[in-house]
Amino acid sequence: MKKIIRAASVLLVLALLSFQLSAQQLESGLSEAWKALQEAGDMPALMNAGNKFNLIAAKWPEDRNANYYAAYARIQIAAKETDAKRKDQLLDEADKYVAVMNSIDAANDESLVLTAYAAFARFQVDPANRWRKYLEIMNENLEKAKKANADNPRIYYLEGIPVFNKPVLYGGGKKKAKPYFEKAKTLFAKQTAGSILKPYWGEKENEEYLVKCD
């Protein structure tokens, strides 16, 4: 009986070590791909970084972070793409990862924010014809994210962009948008970039919008 217990204990320790190693490999891989994405200066480099995230998501298909970043990368690449048809193709790929991410944990505030971001990216491809559908999806998810974690700065950063771009005549403009970016800035200051597993994107872009608001 003691031998069985010892054997079971050894197997448990090995399983825990294997899990820890896998988690470390995931975080290391995501960090490397993230660095490549941030340093990418042209479309080939962006695609190369995006493909790194795709490979990670393929290796860890049931991990929320792996699918989160694969989706995020595709959204970022789509933003740099100039062809509308190709933008939508990239966002189709992003949506697949978003769907998997949400099947794992749809209630997570970062999942809700990224779902909103994906919808906003769709809107940006054709604002005149997509504003009603996709801005509604975006706003619904941002409201849910607030209930999950009102201190997530990406909520207010994303809320501010459509307001900034909306004509003053219709209640938009930089004066109306600035409070959103200011709130996001305050919350960004409280976050740390210690681990890729806790998203921290958006701060640089938020600062750029604040400059435009002055």
Q: What is the N-to-C order of secondary-structure elements (H for helix, E for strand)?
A: HHHHHHHHH
Rg computed from alpha carbons, rounded to a whole number of angstroms: 20 Å
Oligomer: single chain
Uncertain stretches of 5 or more adjacent residues: 6-21
Shape: globular
Global structural class: mainly alpha
Major sheet details: none
Helix content: over 70%
> What is the count of β-strands?
0
- Helix count, per DSSP? 9
Mean of pLDDT? 91
Beta content comes to: under 5%
Distance between the termini: 74 Å
TL;DR?
The protein has 214 residues and is mostly helical.
Account of the protein in words:
This protein is mainly α and 214 residues long. It has 9 helices and no strands.
Layout of helices and strands, plus pairs?
Layout: H1 2-39, H2 43-59, H3 64-80, H4 84-105, H5 109-125, H6 127-148, H7 153-165, H8 174-188, H9 203-213
